[in-house]
Amino acid sequence: MQKKVSIFEEMYSLMLNHLGSQNWWPGETPFEVMVGAILTQNTNWSNVEKAISQLKEHQLLDPQKLYQLSAEELAPLIRSAGYFNVKSIRLKNFIKFFVERYSASIQAMQKVDGFTMREQLLSIRGIGPETADSILLYALEHPIFVIDAYTYRIWRRHFLIEEAANYEDMQELAHSVLSQDLKKFNEFHALLVNVGKNYCRPKKPKCELCPLQGLNWQEGQRHPHE
Length: 226
Known about the structure:
Helix content: 55-70%
Structural class: mainly alpha
Radius of gyration: 19 Å
Number of helices: 12
Number of strands: 0
Order of helices and strands: HHHHHHHHHHHH
Shape: globular
CATH class of the largest domain: Mainly Alpha
CATH superfamily of the largest domain: Hypothetical protein, domain 2
Mean pLDDT: 93
C-alpha cells in the first residue's frame, strides 16, 4: 500500500507543479455550483456556462424562482447544455428537494453529515454518484473524492486500477491512499480533468507532453503507451 500511496502523491505533485492550481469549480455561489454539476452531465463545460449565462440573463439563477418554473419553461433556457428536456426534469427534481427539504438553505445542507447527505442526493431521480459527489465536494465542502471518466482513463493507463474497477472501487482507493483533505480532493480531481482533456485523451494521447510522463511506474510494468 505504501508504494501505491507514494505513486498517488507523486501524481498529484507532478500535475500541480506543471499545471498550477485549477481553482475549480467555477461558480459565484454554492447554488450555481450545484446547478452546474447537474447540467454538466454528458457535455463539456463551455456548454454549461452558456446555459448558466442564460439563466442569469433571465434572472432565474435562484432556487425559489426555478422552483416556480415548470420543466417545460426551463428546458429552452438550458438548451446549450444538451439533453435539455431530460436535464430540465433532473434540475427540477433537485430544486424541489432543495426548496422543500432544506428551504433552499446551503447552510442547512452543510450541517448534515456527508454520508447522510450523499444518500439523500442519490435518492433524487437523475442524480448519480458523480453528480452527488461533485455537489458534496465543491458546493457543500465535504471531503469526498469525485470519480469520472478522466480519472478512470488516467489511473487505468498508469496501472493504478484494474480494468473492471467501478466507481466505488476507485473512490475507496482514493480515500485509502490520500489524506481526507478538502483542498487536495478538490485540486486532485480538477487536475485529473485537465490532464484527461488535454493530454491523456482517448485517442492520440500526448504522452510526451503530459505532466505525468515522468511518473515512476510500478516495478515490472511498462509505460502505458509502449
